[in-house]
Write a structure and sequence with these properties.
The protein is 46% helix and 26% strand. The chain is built from 28 helices and 35 strands.
């Protein structure tokens, strides 16, 4: 007895010494070597980054709201609501508004029934905006972004989720990230439709998430990932989980913390921070920031040295301590260690399997719960509770069902099993499977019940997803045993065969494939074991009619049994179309054989392209010099024409336009551009009516285009300065006056005249005078913006039209030109005398006509010359005088 006591004292002393040494070692190492962790500081600073990004998104929403309110309050839109202007006038106004906002993808006005009254769109940022024809517009009454804004309130801007562009219920590829803002309109005290803006958001999201230190993830309140930082490397399978049906979401990225992320406005951990953005975005917007892997690798290398040091120290003393303990208490400790290992193994197994255990005392109606149940219910300290408290996690219906099953199993002295729904302490919905058995005394009285609770939420939702996929599949899906008996099927399968669901349950392969034999079925099974089956068969419906089906099949195993999975699609119409196309192929080839036009044939499903020899010859290539590739052909298109070509061909492919005819420039093998006219027609469609095949022709129209350009140049271009001439001015000023009268788009007019130009001609000769005129024209081109216009209207007089510019800014611009010419032109022209100009400036008014506007600016120019020349006179100065 005394010997055992001494051994215990020795063991205690050893443990104390060991604890002191290890604690002191860790303290010294951490305090002297690894204090002030950069990772913690960086993650803490990441919270400031999330607030900064939230402000960026808020500014983006405010700017979008300004776009909508400007359009809503414009005279053109108000006049349309009051029926003062036509729908076409509204289309022209919205088209003009799109033109000055290059990041608009689509701008629509829909009526109260969801019909698109006006729809203007572009396919790429800075692309040309076009009006969608009335017969191609849609009804969006069923879209969430039509119904939800009305619940938000009329005349209140509503914002959608960030998602991908969808056309005809299909996601556009390549992906086009977009964002919608909607303004429900109130007119005559009633809902009168909505203004809807779609914005291109790819650049915005890239800039929002671009930072050198952190990787960012955007997600919504449901945990669906909108944008994942790995998308920058071309990996799209982690982004756009809110619109793309894939299984990667926030729970996959953070399996242990995603519930805390979703339930917290701000969360800071040792590896990441998250923040909920307080913004009015549909389904919410949130951000996770974590340090980039390159930083973590460096930090890990530094930590490794720390861990190795601590490990070596602890191992040294642990080895010594273990040796001493085994010497003193080997038998006792082995038993204790074994028991502890079993206990830890059981805890780990139940945690991994998401299982909890409970014990019910029927006398006290108390339930003892283990840690596993507390984890499932998200309730800390959940250990001993009453039966009523336990039932509070269930809905009333599930409470009745549980009590009924429990009492019945007690009476029958049998095990019980039930699957029901619970609501956790943080209001999450889970599905659990509960099993148990009862214990009785010698008198048959119920004395105890022991059971388990298994979290089957994931299994429940997997089954739900499986049912949805099966019921919503576009093809007929068949699950059969190896004898051809139908085990399970999709709704589409019953529709294809014309049977009711109850009738389908008793069918066999021989019921719908009348030409199938046992020998052929056995051969098909053997072939399918080797490779997936892909065949066409004639199948029979219940009403004895037949159709041609494309069938793909695989064999899969569950346990020791094998099953057949088959997908069936009706391709009868496709076969008929293919036959008709083959019949017309020879006629088509004969018709175009002698034509000098180039021919092309594009299979949109496979990407295969045929370019005729004549087409290649047209641009200087031999038969084998140019690949039959649409990508290689598009590379030959002039860069200025490429976006217009892509917009036109895609619009035709998507059914937005009825015809495709496009003229553009193509680079020849001799590095020269020729003009071609490209015509095409869709000759085949897929089962879903999407285009499958397009055939077109290329015609060389270079001579025709050159002739038009020559005519245009002779008609509208001044021979000397190469500026627009008087005829071009007459047409442009009428167009700008019309726009002003309809949409109040302002513009200013400048008329300038070279002072004493006759003296220049007399002194230096007409050649030098012409040179001065040319230099002034070139200088004006450098000064004006791309949306302004310059004209030489005769002699030494020039006119400049400044669009979107008020009188004050026009005057500053005119003074800048006048000063530059005074101080630089003479020196650049080699003249000893300075060259000056006089300028008159006016701003367009409601009362202006073609004649009045010209007279007013001419009067200002006249006053500039009369008052000493080399001056700028604004119309306001004349009014003041």
């Amino acid at each position: 007895m005394r010997q055992n006591l001494n051994q215990i004292k020795k063991l205690g002393l050893i443990f104390i010494i060991f604890a002191i040494i290890v604690s002191f070692s860790i303290f010294v190492i951490r305090e002297l070597w690894f204090e002030q962790r950069a990772q913690k500081l960086s993650l803490h600073n990441a919270l400031d980054k999330t607030l900064e990004r939230e402000n960026v998104v808020a500014d983006y929403l405010d700017q979008t709201e300004d776009y909508l309110l400007f359009l809503r309050n414009s005279d053109a839109f108000t006049n349309y609501l009051n029926k003062a202007i036509s729908r076409q006038d509204l289309e022209d106004f919205i088209l003009s508004y799109m033109a000055v906002n290059p990041d608009f993808m689509r701008l629509r006005y829909v009526d109260a029934d969801g019909n698109e009254i006006v729809r203007v769109e572009r396919s790429v940022v800075n692309g040309q905006a076009t009006i969608v024809a009335t017969d191609l517009t849609e009804n969006i009454a069923s879209e969430y972004y039509f119904t939800e804004p009305q619940n938000n309130g009329l005349e209140q801007v509503w914002y959608s989720a960030f998602d991908l562009n969808i056309e005809n219920d299909e996601i556009t590829t390549p992906y086009l990230p977009t964002f919608r803002a909607v303004l429900p309109i109130e007119h005559d005290d009633a809902f009168d439709g909505e203004l809807v803006i779609n914005l291109f958001t790819e650049d915005f999201i890239e800039k929002l998430t671009d930072t050198p230190l952190y990787d960012m993830i955007l997600y919504n309140d449901n945990g669906e990932i909108i944008y994942h930082y790995q998308q920058k490397n071309g990996l799209f399978d982690k982004s756009w989980g809110n619109v793309i049906d894939h299984h990667y979401n926030l729970s996959d990225e953070f399996p242990d913390q995603y519930l805390s992320i979703l339930s917290s406005d701000t969360l800071e951990t040792s590896s990441f921070v998250s923040r909920h953005f307080d913004l009015p975005v549909y389904e919410g917007l949130n951000m996770v920031l974590q340090l980039k892997s390159s930083y973590l690798i460096t930090e890990q290398q530094r930590k490794t040295s720390e861990y190795v040091t601590i490990f070596l120290i602890v191992m040294l003393f642990s080895g010594l301590l273990t040796y001493l303990i085994l010497k003193l208490f080997s038998r006792t400790l082995l038993n204790v260690d074994e028991l502890q290992r079993l206990n830890e193994t059981l805890k780990s197994a139940t945690h991994i399997a998401k299982i909890g255990f409970l014990e019910l005392n029927p006398a006290s109606k108390k339930i003892h719960l283990n840690e596993g149940i507390a984890e499932i219910y998200h309730e800390e300290g959940l250990e001993d509770i009453s039966f009523e408290e336990y039932l509070s996690y269930l809905s009333p219906d599930d409470q009745k069902l549980l009590i009924q099953n429990f009492n019945q199993s007690v009476l029958e002295k049998s095990e019980f099993s039930i699957t029901h729904k619970i609501t956790t302490s943080d209001q999450q919905i889970k599905y659990v499977e509960q099993r148990g058995r009862h214990f009785y005394n010698q008198q048959g009285q119920h004395i105890k019940s022991i059971g388990s609770i298994y979290d089957v939420t994931e299994k429940f939702f997997v089954n739900k997803k499986y049912e949805m996929m099966l019921n919503n599949a576009s093809d007929g899906l068949f699950f059969m045993d190896l004898n051809g008996n139908l085990i399970e099927f999709s709704k589409k399968a019953a529709i294809l065969l014309g049977y009711t669901e109850s009738e389908m349950a008793s069918l066999n392969i021989y019921d719908w494939d009348r030409e199938m034999t046992p020998e052929l079925w056995s051969q098909l099974i053997d072939n399918t074991r080797q490779n997936s089956l892909d065949i066409e068969r004639t199948l029979a419906r219940k009403d004895q009619t037949t159709f041609i089906a494309h069938i793909t099949a695989n064999i899969f195993e569950i346990g020791d049994e094998s099953f057949v999975y088959a997908s069936i699609r009706d391709i009868s119409l496709q076969k008929e179309t293919q036959k008709a196309l083959e019949d017309s192929q020879l006629r088509w080839q004969f018709a175009v054989e002698g034509n000098k036009d180039g021919l092309w044939d594009w299979n949109l499903n496979t990407g295969e392209v045929f370019l005729s020899d004549q087409l290649k010859k047209m641009i200087g290539y031999d038969q084998d010099d140019l690949k039959d590739s649409m990508e290689e052909w598009q590379e030959l298109i002039h860069p200025d024409d490429r976006s217009g070509y892509l917009q036109a061909i895609n619009s035709y492919r998507q059914g937005k336009s009825d015809t495709y005819i496009k003229e553009y420039r193509v680079l020849t093998k001799q590095d020269q551009y020729i003009w071609i006219r490209d015509k095409a027609v869709i000759v085949e469609h897929n089962d879903d009516q999407s285009p499958r095949r397009i055939i077109g022709t290329h015609t060389d129209i270079t001579e025709y285009i050159d002739a038009l350009e020559l005519i245009k140049k002779q008609t509208y271009i001044d021979d000397l300065t190469q500026l627009n001439n008087r005829k071009a001015y007459d047409e442009r000023i009428i167009e700008l006056l019309g726009q002003y009268q309809r949409y109040q788009f302002p513009f200013s007019m400048m008329m300038l005249d070279i002072d004493h130009f006759k003296t220049v001609n007399d002194t230096y000769g007409h050649d030098k005078g012409d040179e001065v005129m040319v230099q002034i024209g070139a200088l004006l081109k450098e000064f004006v913006r791309i949306n302004d216009y310059i004209f030489r209207i005769g002699g030494e007089e020039f006119i400049i039209l400044l669009t979107g510019t008020g009188l004050e800014h026009a005057g500053l611009f005119a003074e800048k030109i006048r000063s530059h010419i005074e101080h630089n032109l003479a020196q650049n022209s080699g003249l000893s005398d300075s060259i000056t100009i006089s300028i008159g400036v006016v701003n367009v008014t409601e009362a202006d006509t073609f004649e009045t506007l010209y007279k007013r600016v001419d009067r200002c120019l006249y006053q500039a010359k009369e008052s000493g020349r080399n001056k700028v006179i604004l119309e306001t100065l004349l009014q003041a005088e």
